[in-house]
Amino acid sequence: MDLNFDGWEDLCIREGYGDGVHIPYRCMLWNQQRNRYEFSAVLYNVEIDPEKEWIVCRQKDGEKLYSTRYYRYDQEGLLHMVRYVEENEAEDAVFEKLDLTYVEGGIYTLPAVVNQGNRNHTMLSMAKQALLELYQWTGEKVDTACFRVSDMGGVVFAMSPEDIEHSRIFFSRYFGTDTVYSLSGYDKCISSIDIMTARSVWYSPVSWHIFPKDKETMTDEEVMIWYFERFPGAYHDRVKTIEQRYADMWTIQTELGKWFEVVYDAKLREIVDVTGPYAENPVH
User: What is the mean pLDDT of residues 180-188?
Assistant: First the structure.
């Protein structure tokens, strides 16, 4: 089959029968200039979509868990992941279906190139973890989105490729050096989470579904503490002190001695951003 849609037939050579479900194929691209086939990648259950010029690989990743990965070759012959769809039929599944499109471009964006270590798997894992945290904190289940991953260990989400190109980001999650998703190797990367809700920007699908029932009678500090202590990145740590640093920024020290910075929208009475933990009181 023509894997890169350049008009020349390529080869997919079966490498055994795998486990009977995942059939591995050694994909060889025809190099017209060198007059030979050259190895590209090992993919499973290879199909092609001539209309979109994608390679389609369907897999079973676990009990009642299925995924489809979509790939495309660039002009240099590098294979890129362009889309990931996951279906989870388990009764306790948070996301019955996830449909994530990867958007490359931008000076700090990592390309989703196959055969560069385990990067694609890590990028997908980051995106799924971020959306899970968004759901756990806000109660909003976003199961269809576009995303990018930066070389500093951050993943950002938008509703379309055009939204990403125009910085219409509704959610970002940066995984610092204190997490398993640190990609930069820079030892001063700090974790952060940033949410733009539908009450503040028109392009966001996110609304808070989890909030205190007596919010109207609470002070701003009490509202921030309520939200913060339910933030997944706080790991059930409790607030020891809270201090206003700037007009919209507050510093929190937890009972375990960790420090966080919180950006608070006083008009909407919503937390917009949480950065931390810091090892000591952050002074910028």
Answer: 73
